[in-house]
Amino acid sequence: MKAHIERMLRAMVWADERVVRALANCPAAQEESLPLLSHLLAAEHVWLARLERRAAVRPVWPALSFADCEALAVENAVGYAAYLEHLSEADLAEVVQYKNSKGVEFATSVVDILTHLVIHGAYHRGQIAKALGRAGTPATETDYIAYVRTVDNR
Predict the structure, then answer these.
(1) Is residue 154's pLDDT more than 80?
(2) DSSP classification of residue 64
(3) Is 66 helix (H, G, I), strand (E, B) or coil?
(4) Measured between alpha carbons, how far is 10 from 66 in angstroms, rounded to an integer?
């Protein structure tokens, strides 16, 4: 399971990088997409902080500039790579206690948090793809299967 989770998170980072590049090349889509990209990347930041049992420094719906998003995408990529490096198979079953953005307490397993993270990002990257299309730019492919076929083809 750990190897599969690692692969999905590498695909998440790959997809984030592709979306950031696509938006860099299509400023017309940025106005609509920037709040979504900011949220997607901030949520990744918040979940990593929860997994590492530390306070997040960004809210889940921040108002970030495009440059801030570029920097946060890199920060998240580095952070998740470091987190996964020390994650064991047994750690996946560990339960993390945290409060959501409304202050409600929850307890969720690491594997469920990481699975949610991947699915959540895919949802918002799909919204960004629609904005790119409305701005006249073909959406960049960010599906997991595209990652598997082109980058991590075993």
Answers:
(1) no
(2) -
(3) helix
(4) 22
